[in-house]
Amino acid sequence: MLPKPVEMDAAQEVEEPPSISEDEPPSKAVLLHTPRPALWADIPDEKWNDWHWQIAHRLNTVDELSQIVNLTAEEVTGLTADDKFRVDITPYFASLIDPDDPDCPVRRQVIPLGRELHAFTGMMADSLAEDRHSPVPGLVHRYPDRALMLVTTQCASYCRYCTRSRIVGNPHQTFSKVDFAAQLDYLRRTPQIRDVLLSGGDPLTLNPKTLEYILASLREIEHIEIIRIGTRVPVFLPQRITDELCDMIRQYHPVWMNIHVNHPKEITPELNRALDKLLSAGIPLGNQSVLLAGINDSVDIQRELVHKLVKNRVRPYYLYQCDLVKGAGHFRTTVSKGIEIIEGLRGHTSGYAVPTYVVDAPGGGGKIPVMPQYLISQSPGRVVLRNYEGYITTYDEPTDYDPHQIDHLNQQSVHRDESGQGGVSGLLAGESQAIKPEGFDTLHQRGGAAHRLNGDAAKWQPYHQNGNGHNGNGHNGNGHSSNANGHTNE
Ligand SMILES: *Cc1c(COP(=O)(O)O)cnc(C)c1O
Ligand code: SF4
């Protein structure tokens, strides 16, 4: 099937017009492509389209980059700093840069500024505390049923705001067979994990044998239902998405993939064709963007981005608030900017095109969704809601709703043990009465000793809170709950 050409950025000229006709076999069709800077005009297509060539010719110095970009003084400072985060840009991605515009959104993502060396309040090396949530190196197990597996520190190009700059780019920090063995061993003995995300670094920069070894090993673990790959390779190095690679990956289905596009300018005919191959291999595609000041912190740019993504059959998944990580200070926006963007998307465009805006909690709390408030008020029996247009309406709730109708079916369904991570949902289900700050009980003893009034714990146990089926969740009465004895607040 012929890949559908996508719109070119208005500023880019199409060198050759598309001459795709119905009777021509795809191989003969002249496909749209991104124009190359003069520096690479004479590189034969076989080389340009070969990912090995692209990787071998990445740009990282002032000398190399000045051949295609008119560098600013601040970029020169950024590029010549001793302790900078790694710089490497594939010729393909570099060819998307506007040589004369210091604000070019592609350029800003990959060419460092002097500013990135500035420390800012709240900055951390590992702001998501990933290394603290890793039972073994490179395996972050933060949520009940899924885990993040870091498989390499290498990427096709390096994003200045990378949340994992503490290890990414450094070949000495990369993960080895010994690490993979420990990660896989942890996954094997942790049956609650049903979803494994491969990340890094970029898993698609691994040599295909190693990637296949990891996919095959994961597939041998029965409780792992889905595998996800987080990758920016289709964006930085679309040439890497070969039929061979897709054929390898498809053997290990269900495999999902999240790509990482931040600005519509990154959506090129080359990316479109790479995505088409991945989709043809049956890999559902999502996109994760980072909200970046001066790059995509605009409702109009985000709308254009998500529209182009869905046209390419990529579902916008997350829009991330920029992390409190070293190097990312000048990319940070306020959280209200993210809310404004979601306000400008939800209702205004296809639901499929609206990502979930999340703040990944500093300290390791995981992703916290943040959105405009649509529930305006409520009283028993009625809620007041507003829509994207500001239309304010009421919804009358049923007065005879019985949440226990479902109990019978519920008891036949599988209850997943969340091992103490039931959270607020667990409070609603009556698994526990409260979630307490660390040291709460000790603090409130105020140094007092046991006395005649505080000895009987039963008097703080809510009457029938647990085990009587009156807690809105049929699972709690049948011993599935991690706190089936009902004494949860001691
Ligand atoms: C983002 C992330 C996941 C996946 O979260 P989803 O919301 O399921 O996409 C899992 N583990 C870690 C550590 C993560 O940061
Ligand atoms: S591709 Fe991902 S891991 Fe690699 S530098 Fe960019 S943000 Fe970091």
The CATH superfamily of the largest domain is Aldolase class I
CATH topology descriptor of the largest domain: TIM Barrel
Mean pLDDT: 90
**Alpha-beta classification:** alpha/beta
Low-confidence stretches: 1-18, 467-490
CATH class of the largest domain: Alpha Beta
What count of structural domains?
3
* CATH architecture assignment name of the largest domain: Alpha-Beta Barrel
Instruction: Give the termini separation.
Output: 63 Å
Gross morphology: globular
The profile of the biggest β sheet is: 9 strands, mixed
| Fraction in beta strands | 5-15%
Strand order of the largest sheet: 1-2-3-4-5-6-7-8-9
Number of helices: 16
Helix content: 25-40%
Order of helices and strands: HHHHHHEEHEHEHHEHEHEHEEEEEHHH
Radius of gyration: 26 Å
The ligands found in this model are: pyridoxal-5'-phosphate, iron/sulfur cluster
Describe the structure concisely for a colleague:
The protein folds into 3 domains: 1-370, Alpha-Beta Barrel (TIM Barrel); 372-401, no CATH class; 406-413 and 422-437 and 460-490, no CATH class. It is built from 16 helices and 12 strands.
3D architecture notes:
With 490 residues, this protein is of the alpha/beta class. It has three domains: 370 residues, TIM Barrel; 30 residues, no CATH class; 55 residues, no CATH class. The chain is 25% helix and 12% strand. It has 16 helices and twelve strands. The chain has a nine-stranded mixed beta sheet. A hairpin with a 2-residue loop joins β10 and β11. The chain starts with 44 loop residues before the first helix and ends in a 45-residue tail after the last helix. The N terminus and C terminus are likely disordered. The structure holds pyridoxal-5'-phosphate and iron/sulfur cluster (SF4). The site of pyridoxal-5'-phosphate has 7 residues, from β2. Pyridoxal-5'-phosphate binds next to β2.
